[in-house]
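Appendix B. Extra example for self-study. Work through it before the problem class; the solution is given directly after the inputs so you can check yourself.
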Amino acid sequence: MIDKVRADAAAAVAGIEDGSTVMISGFGRAGQPVELIDALIGLGPNELTIVSNNAGNGDVGLARLLAAGRVRKIVCSFPRQLDSWVFDGLYRAGEIELELVPQGNLVERIRAAGAGIGAFFTPTGFGTPLAEGKETREIDGRNYVLEYPIHADYALIGGYRADRLGNVIYRKTSRNFGPVMAAAATTSIVQVDEVVAVGALDPEGIVTPGVFVDRVVTVGERNWLEGGVFVGADDAEGNRGPASDRTAPGPAASARTKGDAA
Amino acid sequence: MIDKVRADAAAAVAGIEDGSTVMISGFGRAGQPVELIDALIGLGPNELTIVSNNAGNGDVGLARLLAAGRVRKIVCSFPRQLDSWVFDGLYRAGEIELELVPQGNLVERIRAAGAGIGAFFTPTGFGTPLAEGKETREIDGRNYVLEYPIHADYALIGGYRADRLGNVIYRKTSRNFGPVMAAAATTSIVQVDEVVAVGALDPEGIVTPGVFVDRVVTVGERNWLEGGVFVGADDAEGNRGPASDRTAPGPAASARTKGDAA
Amino acid sequence: MSLDRTRLAARIARDIPEGAYVNLGIGAPTLISDYLPEGAEIILHTENGMLGMGPQPRPGEIDPDLINAGKVPVTELPGAAYFHHADSFGMMRGGHIDICVLGAFQVSQAGDLANWSTGAPGAIPAVGGAMDLAIGAKQVFVMTDLLTKTGESKLVAACSYPLTGVGCVTRVYTDRAVFDVTPDGFAVTETFDTTLEELTRLTGLELVDRTHAEPIDIVQEAGT
Amino acid sequence: MSLDRTRLAARIARDIPEGAYVNLGIGAPTLISDYLPEGAEIILHTENGMLGMGPQPRPGEIDPDLINAGKVPVTELPGAAYFHHADSFGMMRGGHIDICVLGAFQVSQAGDLANWSTGAPGAIPAVGGAMDLAIGAKQVFVMTDLLTKTGESKLVAACSYPLTGVGCVTRVYTDRAVFDVTPDGFAVTETFDTTLEELTRLTGLELVDRTHAEPIDIVQEAGT
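Solution. Structure tokens for the complete assembly:
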């Protein structure tokens, strides 16, 4: 029997080594696999190259991985955000290397890796500093830049539901980079709210087929869902209840703010 | 109000001219938009270039268009099949031009057109006669062939359900080239069993978003479905009932064999 | 009287026809969605993977899985569709978005756009999807003040800031006037309590006067 | 005794491990699905857009929307997934299919495959997905008779027929023997009622004798 489900996040990230290239899904916080990143921090490899759209938000997830000093280089499109203080500090201190890639070229380069394309001509970035030194070509009267695939050793992906075969679905805009990264990494690891029985996912609606997925782990339901039904949150971090409640520690508060936990 | 729904197949194909390049979805008979092709035959343009995986099956759909002498050139991967006698005859008589493209390059070239990629390096076909005269390059120790996009003036697509915004879903392996062609043509025309209300299609499961679709037409439910429920057929053409029944003319038999009607 | 941000947003909204697929860039352009004509179906694209984006949700109804490109929570309208990032940027790069509206540091009279970096030493660069939007949309509208806070024209002969895209801007909506990018340079199509002479002085550019011309249906003009 | 088609299919099926993603080419290779080990989960890919393909349906249960690459009606197993053609060929080209099994006109000792055209004048060429499968799958197995109907070896020093792919074949299963493609040429790993001497005579090639070697876990060996 095929069973890609791992017991916990630590088991799911096993094997990631010093120097690995790791893709991390998500656009801002949406689709960011926070529990897998926390497990990666626990595992401890250093000198990682991270491929992700952003360079962390607040002090959780990817930001926490950066703060822990585990990342040598990040390949992303939009590092600077209102809540990217961890990256900002490292960058200004010269402690992290940045490869800045226009977002569409970033995702197309990741797609190329997964789809076996050797290189492609894109119009995006032509004539800008981000195409400096790159091969260009005019094709049918339009100017293009040649871009190469981005492969990874591992991909950490935030999904919604999966089955033991590794079929995955996502929720709304948290889909973003997940399906593309799953195909581009040698080993793809997906965290989901819930693992469901084989056959429970509609074959017409599976977004990432199991062929792209190596490991699956359940991390429990997010705050804004109850039994798979959307119940809403009070902020974009997924907190519920009045803001004043959120500083109170204790099991109840903890359960309600798990999305924000460090 | 946006309303991409056309009254009938004739209205849906209006504007296709002599010399147009027309993509036709489908893999064999699955997903082939037979009613749109029939309307195109009725409309009458000549000297068409057709882009499709196959070159027609039996005497219906694309095969009927070929038999009507409307096609100057076909770009496809697999013209020769057990039931491709119409194409075979035209080809042997030198009455149709063939551009043979490996299937994965064909669909990736169509995808490139829709996604604004100027050209791409593919490993498929390297060292074979189908790459003769094409630019090649070694990248990271592997050999690739440079392939260019295939654009079209029109795409005729066989879908399952759509809404008036042009959002489309497909059934099973009839999806094949449809979503890719919808993005690659200037004007994309989709036939479906049924147009449903806006909001009736699951936003997570929409395969072709309306942005790629210009016109939608309902052609009625196929033989093997009843009210959207699969009831089965007795052959791959979608006929039902014992084979002996199918030669009997008359309204009842006609309704049962509509998928096979010329 | 020059237009403030909200009135400028309302002005731009008037030029967005029903049925258009539109991407409103991060920042001021997002204001435009509040002024789209009541009842007209205009479909908003957000590059993080959605068509049919609706307004911001009320507190308590926020879905952290449903955000826009500015990472602000949004909602889903009937007929919405989700897709992954490669499909979303293929949609942009492939020319399927009718109109995008972007902010700018500078726009050149050749239509070059600079809106992602001032090139200042020590600044942290971030480009996001700006370059894809700039070269991908059929019409690229820029929404900006005409002058910087220090009084320099954002319309320039040639951009001094790092480019976002070459020859990509269709039209510039500013607080003082609306400018079309034409083969002859910027053409003023509409002024807000100013004159062509003042605009010429402020920008230091030769401007074409089209303030009395018939309005052009720009979506038709440049549709591909 | 040499192996007939069904016994050869059964022999190949033994080398397909549980959990493998497998594409069985049009024609004889489809027979293999009947011999996959009972209860082992092996996921069949069909390049027209499906993983989790099941056996042919009974008459009356045929779904014309659900066919395999040979355009034969098939069924859907629990856990199946559908996708469009670009995604399906990305899956193949990107090296995600563990094993494909193809027929052949010729295989060279360098692993070149010729299986789509004899190059005969007047023949209608058709390539389909053969070239993508040949260069895309991690392991390319060929299933064929050793000799043509006119007695010529299909294993050759260099293919005379038009190529499908260069250096792509991993292993050749024939009615007389199993051959691995190695840097030293064809290595015989298993014979069916024949000898290395006879195989050498029939193929006219220098063959490496590995009939007594430990079996190699080929999926491990060449997995990427």
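Self-check: Chains D and C do not touch (no CB pair under 8 Å). If your reasoning did not lead you there, revisit section 3.
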